[in-house]
Structure formats: C-alpha cells, structure tokens
Design goal:
The protein has 329 residues and is an alpha+beta fold. Helices cover 31% and strands 20% of the residues. It has helices at residues 14-19, 29-44, 57-71, 75-78, 122-125, 141-166, 173-177, 194-197, 255-260, 299-304, 316-324, and strands at 10-12, 47-51, 91-93, 99-100, 103-104, 108-113, 184-191, 209-212, 218-223, 230-233, 239-241, 249-253, 270-272, 280-287, 294-295, 314-315. It is globular. The protein starts with 9 loop residues before the first strand and ends in a 5-residue tail after the last helix. Residues 199-204 have low confidence and may be disordered.
C-alpha cells in the first residue's frame, strides 16, 4: 500500500543498467545502492523516475514528435488504422472511445501489442490475435516505434532484475516467474488541451484518463516535457503530480508485480488531467509477463510476509483480455 508520499523519487539506474548481467552484480556496491532505492520507491509510492537508463534523449523526443505529427492529421486520415476487435484491438481509437470505470476518457490513442499469430495461445489468445496497425504518415513511424519498443523491452528487463534483488530474490527469479517470454503493450496517447473539453457538464469529462492501475509488471512513461498532467494517489487520497523531468521515464508497478511480490509492492492508482492550453502526448510502454503465464506469489516473498499469501493468482492473458474487452465502446 502506498504511503503518504508527497513527491515521486528520482533514481539514477546507470550502474544497474551497465552491470545487470554480470555474475556478481548483486555484490556490487553501486548496484546495491540502486536496489535499495528501488525497494524504497516500490514500497512507498509504487512510482519512481529513472535517469541514466541509456536510451538516447533524442529518441525519447523523436517518438513524441512523431506522435504529435500523427495526432495533428485530419480525423479521416487517422481512421485509416481504426482499432477493431478483428485486428486484436490494435490501432487508432478516437477521443472518448476508451472507457475507465464506465466514464469516457478524454484522449485518443494508437494501441499496439506484441503480435499474436493464430493459434499461438489457443482460445486464451484468440481475442488478441492480429498484427499492429501502423500509420504510413509520418513515413518513419513504424520503424522508429519498433526501435523504441526493443530498447524499452531491454531496459524494463534490467530494471526488473534490480527489483527482484530488492524483493530478496536472485536477479533471475522474476524472469523465471513470468514465463521467460515477456509480452508488451505500447500506447501512443494524445490528450486534447483544456479548451477542447471546457464546458462539459461533469468534472469527470475533463479527465484525460480515469483513475486506474496498470495490468502488467512495469510501465515506462515518456511524457511531454512541458505539461504536468499525470497524477498519482497516495494513501490519504491526495493526487500527487508527476511533473515531466526531461530525459527520464516515470516508472510504475503493475498488477502482476503486485501479485508476484505477494503485495509487498502495490500497483498504485493514477490518472491524467490535462489542464494545459496545449495538446499533450504521452508514449507509455508496458512490460508484461508471458501471455499465458500463471502468476502467483513467489515463495521468497511469501516467506517475507510470514508465510501468508496476501495475493491471489492470475493468468496474465486472461487479465489483459478482460480489461481490453471492457475498456472500449
């Protein structure tokens, strides 16, 4: 459970990134310091910034620039990659099409998932079968986003090796516990400026994305540098802003890591409210377990909680499909 934190910690993970695959990484003093900070951030807030992550700042900016270019296109052009269930819920969704707890969200987005071929996961994977729909304009959109996804996947794996150590396991424990073939989700999201939604009858209709927790293990949020819109709820119910810090990712824990850690780490509620006069873009990458992995509390986390299993079990794919099929009108 998140504490009454008032701000979100910033962690320089450069030593973890550079040494995370070395055999003696757990004994390295600089890695141990990062692990200590990760543990504190995960226990107290479930959110943290990372710097020293190794992904070029130029690439972070370029993916947001291309997202802006796409969302600036005429509506008819964006609809060429309209999201459908036949495409495995991949593609473009218009403003208000995403639903959080019954309320339309004031954002538009392109939803992408690790591609699922027919029969890959049997009946479990059937709803998610399909290929990503990439826009042809801007012309380098697909290639740049795929490069970005590959780098975010590798970075997430490295951070989670540190989190496994923070929980008291070995660096490899978490990778083994999630099935060894991580799924991923990418949401390229655009939030209209406040003037576009002003005059709505309900304050709920000003919410870019309603309060929710993320589905998987770890999220990397790459947000516009000049707009504060992401908010994180602390234990007292206060909404704490997560202002952009150039060159960093905002990271947060998902539902599957909450289960795997036996509740030692929680997936914290967060939302997006864009009160800026400017259109806001956020590119959110979600690192997930293997699609058909059965996630349950790890034994060493159960020991840390006195042998009591505080979290249930979940098959990640079932969890994802149940969310996806109720998130869109």
């Amino acid at each position: 459970m998140a504490t009454d934190f008032k701000s979100i910690p910033i962690i320089d993970i450069s030593s973890l990134v550079s040494k995370c695959d070395e055999p003696d990484m757990a004994q390295d003093s600089t890695v141990c310091e990062v692990v200590k900070q990760l543990d504190q951030a995960c226990r107290e807030a479930g959110f943290f910034y990372v710097r020293g992550h190794g992904i070029p700042d130029s690439l972070l900016k370029e993916v947001k620039y291309l997202a802006h270019k796409y969302f600036d296109l005429p509506y008819e052009e964006k609809l060429k990659i309209k999201m459908t269930s036949a495409a495995g819920y991949r593609g473009y969704q218009k403003v208000g099409e995403n639903i959080t707890k019954g309320v339309p969200d004031i954002h538009e987005a392109i939803d992408c998932y690790k591609e699922v071929t027919p029969g890959m996961y049997g009946a479990l994977g059937k709803p998610m079968e399909g290929c990503n729909q990439w826009p042809v304009n801007p012309p380098n959109f697909k290639s740049l986003m795929e490069e970005y996804i590959a780098l975010c996947t590798d970075l997430s794996r490295k951070i989670l090796r540190g989190i496994a150590l923070a929980l008291g396991g070995s660096p490899d424990d978490l990778e083994g516990g999630i099935g060894g073939d991580p799924f991923w989700v990418l949401r390229i999201i655009g939030y209209p400026d406040v003037s576009s939604v002003k005059g709505q009858d309900s304050n709920d209709n000003d919410i870019g994305c309603g309060a929710h927790t993320d589905y998987g293990l770890l999220t990397l949020v790459n947000q516009d540098d000049d707009i504060t819109a992401l908010q994180v709820r602390n234990m007292s119910g206060e909404w704490i802003p997560a202002p952009p810090i150039p060159g960093t990712f905002v990271c947060n824990i998902g539902d599957m890591l909450k289960i795997w850690s036996n509740g030692l780490y929680d997936s914290t509620l967060h939302r997006v409210v864009n009160n800026s006069p400017k259109y806001r873009v956020c590119v959110a990458y979600f690192y997930e377990p293997n699609f058909d992995a059965a996630i349950e509390p790890s034994e060493f986390c159960v020991k840390r909680t006195g042998g009591i299993r505080k979290s249930g079990k979940a098959v990640y794919g079932e969890h994802l499909v149940s969310k996806v099929q109720t998130n869109f009108v």
